Structure formats: C-alpha cells, structure tokens
Amino acid sequence: MVVIGQHRAVDSQPQRLVIISDTHLPTRARELPEPVWAAVERADVVIHAGDWCELPALLALQKRSRRLVGVYGNNDGPPLRERLPEVARVELGGLRFAVVHETGPAKGREHRCEQRFPDTDVLVFGHSHIPWDTTAPGGLRLLNPGSPTDRRRQPHATYLTATAGNGALTEVRLHELPRRTG
Fold it and tell me: Of 121, 129, 122, which is closest to residue 159 (Cα–Cα)?
C-alpha cells in the first residue's frame, strides 16, 4: 500500500521505518544508493522529508515502497507540489508523526517545533542534510536523516531506520553510506 501525504491510520503494531530526505535526484546522484533501496524493500513504511527534485524520484520510491509518506521541499517544483503536501501527518505504531521539510535554524528548533506541532510525538524533517536526533523538553522527538546522496559538509551520506510500535520509537539507527568513487 502506498500512501502519500495526509493519512491517519490507528495501528500500534510494530512497523519498520526507513526515513530519508534530500535525495536530490538526479542532480546529486542518478539514483538512490543500493543499501537504501535494500532498506526500502524491507521496510513497512518509508518516510521522505522532501527535496526529491524530480518526479521520477517520487515514482520510483512509490513503486518500491509498501507504504510511502512524503512531503515536498524547497527544491521541488510544481509536478511534485501537485502530488505532495507541505506537511504530512500519520499515525504509525501508536505514535503521531508529522513530516515537514524545513524547521528553520538549529538554535531554538525544539521549542519552535513543539509550538508548531503540539499534538505530535515524532517530527521528521530535512533541508539541512545534517543528521539530527533530539527530544524536546515536552517530549517531541525530532529526527533528520541527513541525505543519502548529498553529504555536503558531513563525513558521510546518511539515512535512518527505526521501529515504531506499541507507542514507542525504538531501534533508531543512523546509517552511514560509503563514499562514492569515480
């Protein structure tokens, strides 16, 4: 089942998640790295926090995902904005997720996001290409998977996996991808 954007399904069963953002296809890479595709095919849900860049990237991920939740980013033009929301909300494994591309500067992020997403347990975001995993004072978990294709000033390109189930987010793991050669 592929779901994009606004969808709420109440289900507390454990679900394997792949969390990606800022894929920038085909400008930063022709396709996603093979380890990401392998993780996508094992996942119950794929979350993409925007900056796909071209519609074929969305279509390829839709085709290979059991379920897809995605938003558009600042580099996504009309074909993607027509299909994706700016903010997506979904319940997975008994947790309320929100997905958005940009959250503003790192300074004050937790407070701003708690104010903007008061009834959310986990906020997935992108834009910076910098992995982020913090919990705000009120309990909101903020996750940025970095980018699997454009590491910018980071030592590695990255993506996240996690399990959502029984109202808890567990097994959160940042995966570092090998540097491309050639």
Answer: 129
| CATH number, domain 15-134+147-170 | 3.60.21.10
User: Percent of the chain beyond pLDDT 90?
Assistant: 84
Which residue's structure tokens are 């008061």? 118
Backbone angles phi, psi at 61, to 5 degrees: -70, -35
Q: How far apart are CA 127 and CA 101, in angstroms?
A: 6
pLDDT digits over 46-86, tens only? Answer: 999 999 999 999 999 999 999 999 999 999 999 999 999 99
**Alpha-carbon gap, residue 70 to 135, rounded angstroms:** 22
Q: Which residues of 54-68 are buried (b: 16+ CB within 10 A; e: fewer)?
A: bbebbebbbeebbbb
Q: How far apart are CA 97 and CA 10, in angstroms?
A: 12
Residues comprising the chain, all counted: 182
Q: 6-23 as b/e, with b when 16 or more CB fall inside 10 Å?
A: eeeeeeeebbbbbbbbbb
In 3-state terms, what secondary structure has residue 117?
A: coil
Do the Cβ atoms of 148 and 176 come closer than 8 Å? Answer: no
Which tens digits make up the pLDDT trace of 137-177? 999 999 999 999 998 888 999 999 999 999 999 999 999 99
Amino acid in position 42 = R
